[in-house]
Design brief:
CATH architecture of the largest domain in chain A: 3-Layer(aba) Sandwich
Helix content of chain A: 40-55%
Strand order of the largest sheet of chain A: 2-1-3-4-5-11
Number of strands of chain A: 12
Strand content of chain A: 15-25%
CATH topology of the largest domain in chain A: Rossmann fold
Oligomer: homodimer
CATH superfamily of the largest domain in chain A: Response regulator
Radius of gyration of chain A: 27 Å
Protein name (chains A, B): Transcriptional regulator, LacI family
CATH class of the largest domain in chain A: Alpha Beta
Order of helices and strands of chain A: HHHHEHEHEHEEHEHEHEHEEHEE
Distance between the termini of chain A: 78 Å
Organism (chains A, B): Salipiger marinus
Shape of chain A: elongated
Largest interface: A-B, 65 and 61 residues
GO molecular function, one term (chains A, B): DNA-binding transcription factor activity
Number of helices of chain A: 12
Keywords (chains A, B): DNA-binding, Transcription, Transcription regulation
Number of domains of chain A: 3
InterPro entries (chains A, B): Cro/C1-type_HTH (IPR001387), HTH_LacI (IPR000843), LacI/GalR-like_sensor (IPR046335), Lambda_DNA-bd_dom_sf (IPR010982), Peripla_BP_I (IPR028082)
Largest sheet of chain A: 6 strands, parallel
DNA sequence: CTGTTAGCGCTTTCAT
DNA sequence: ATGAAAGCGCTAACAG
């Protein structure tokens, strides 16, 4: 089967330098080159030197595809988020990627958009690359997504939402609870009227619902609810307050927004109309974005430590990969209400 | 998560179902399964049906690692950007990824941070996965980066900056020219004093320098220049204007910022001090971010079509991969000055 | 339309 | 400390 190289190398179509080539130049076999790279201590100093020189001379770059196929470890980790242009997810993935990179893994990142079906299809493509672990956003997935994940047998972490019964591991927080906490704040501050402005996914809606429930339970009037399908934006926040004021009979009170950018828009629109914040209109955002404490007045918001989510998710996967984790893990990292000038 | 061995007939250590397995179940050889997947038209309808059933029954997921090794095409495309939490790069990569995904490629994305050495190291790791093409941010790279790229023989596109002599292809714009154009605007508006606030990379500095050169050439006073090492932020913009006003003798005039977020900070600080914008302080940003036309007043800025960069970069690589491109390509996508209320 | 044969460039295992 | 042999799971010729 294996025809020995009869002296002269056959004309190599592919242009890549192989370990074979490096070994030939260094006067050792291909395996020794492999060893020199994966565990230098296992080859003699002299051999190592010659191999290093040969690598330098040839510009050899190991083929990780072949390595992964042979070792059954790809060194790849899948990360699936709704959108990378959303700072919430971007900063989480950034922290996740840093930790995984330190552990020797590379991130295969994809956007899944809004539907679970898109997530399922993207996941299938990713699994064909045989990742060593998977990060998913959210706790709701299609049946086939779950099945594929289970069948793959690799560690999985679901982030940015919380459940006691994750596929494998979960790192998140209780979205409805954040809304209820803001509802309490609104009631504590003595507001009678309140409104919500939502331009996010299902999780954002749950936050808004938690707010409405708690605010009315605490004696507030029925909450005016405004929802948008497009991405959160300053313009959207301005338009929302305008609509609340001009068309929906909102007079004065607290506005809870699904993101700080919407809250900032509400703030700007209020000021453009000569309304005082927080006296006439109070506003609370979500996410504690970088700009939120530098506006005038600074924006009250719900803080969640996005980087911590990314790091914790990485740890959960690493412990799974290395078999240090016995069973499922569900970690609630919680949140903090940041009361600032806007409410 | 530990999935018990499903008790397969043959003691397969590896838990993946292979084409071999699928073929056996469908009563055909492994190659036929491969064909059914890559080119269904080459297989008889009846065979195809049986194969499809077998795939369904086994939950077979093709191993792209093996496929890539055998075919010498990984279906992977490398994208290297300074930071994914910077909306500038995130939106560019998003558009790039969409186009490449449509063409059947998956993106291997990494952050390179600020140094060319980090870029080099990251690139080396990426090349070991044998990507079919590479996207790089900027036109400055280490010698070894260039050497590795040239040796790999795959299409390369450098984005977000412009040169007539790219490694392979280039899609960008002239940063200094944007600064000069804003310098002209400042002069046209009759400003005598001007300042720059920069919190970005080398390209941002080139924009600021272009502004200063042109503004003084047009008769303006020497430009006050403020530079920060940290990321651009609202707070940074506010602090910058405060410093300009309180410590550097800036009185009234135009402030050109390296990003819209800084410009927004300047705007807020000016208003907090009771200064009129644009009468007392005029401000121009860069990037035309989503919020920039919804502030009060809206921010004048330099618009660059980030999505267009991403798409054009994708096209450049695709034409290279498919051999449709003969030689290097250098595309200057230009920019537009958007004059709004802030200047 | 389908099968056979020969690798892709590595890691693993077992000798030496 | 080093090497030979045997795959990893797939694609690419080439037959038939």
């Amino acid at each position: 089967m294996h025809i020995p190289d009869g002296g002269e190398p056959k004309s190599r179509r592919g242009r890549g330098v192989t370990m074979q080539d490096v070994g030939r130049m260094a006067g050792v076999s291909q395996v020794t080159v492999s060893r020199a790279l994966s565990d230098p201590a296992k080859v003699s100093p002299d051999t190592l030197r010659r191999i290093t020189q040969a690598i330098e001379a040839t510009g050899f770059v190991p083929n990780a595809l072949a390595g992964a196929l042979a070792s059954r470890r790809s060194g790849l980790v899948t990360a699936l988020v709704p959108s990378i242009t959303n700072i919430i997810y971007a900063s989480m993935v950034q922290a996740f990627g840093l930790r995984m990179r330190d552990a020797g893994y590379q991130i295969l990142l994809s956007e899944t958009g809004l539907t679970l079906e898109a997530e399922e299809e993207t996941l299938a493509r990713h699994l064909s690359r045989r990742p060593d672990a998977v990060l998913l956003t959210g706790i709701h997935h299609t049946a086939r997504t779950r099945r594929m994940l289970l069948a793959s047998g690799i560690p999985v972490v679901e982030v940015w939402d919380f459940t006691e019964t994750p596929i494998d591991a979960c790192v998140g927080f209780d979205h409805a609870a954040t809304g209820r906490a803001v509802g309490d704040l609104a009631a504590d501050l003595g507001h009678v009227q309140a409104a919500t402005v939502c331009a996010g996914d299902e999780r954002a809606k749950r936050r808004m619902a938690g707010f409405a429930t708690q605010f009315t339970r605490r004696g507030g009037q029925a909450v005016l609810e405004l929802g948008y399908d497009d991405q959160a934006s300053l313009a959207g926040g301005r338009a929302a307050l305008a609509r609340l004021l001009d068309e929906m009979g909102f007079d004065r009170g607290l506005v809870f927004c699904s993101s700080d950018i919407l809250a900032h828009g509400v703030l700007i629109e209020a000021q453009a109309r000569g309304l005082r914040v927080p006296q006439d209109i109070a506003v609370v955002g979500f996410g504690d974005q970088e700009f939120s404490d530098a506006t005038n007045p600074p924006i009250s918001t719900v803080h969640v430590d996005r980087e911590a989510f990314g790091r914790a998710a990485a740890e959960a996967l690493l412990s799974g990969i290395e078999g240090r984790r016995d069973g499922p893990a569900a970690i609630d990292l919680g949140f903090r209400i940041l009361r600032r000038g806007s409410a």
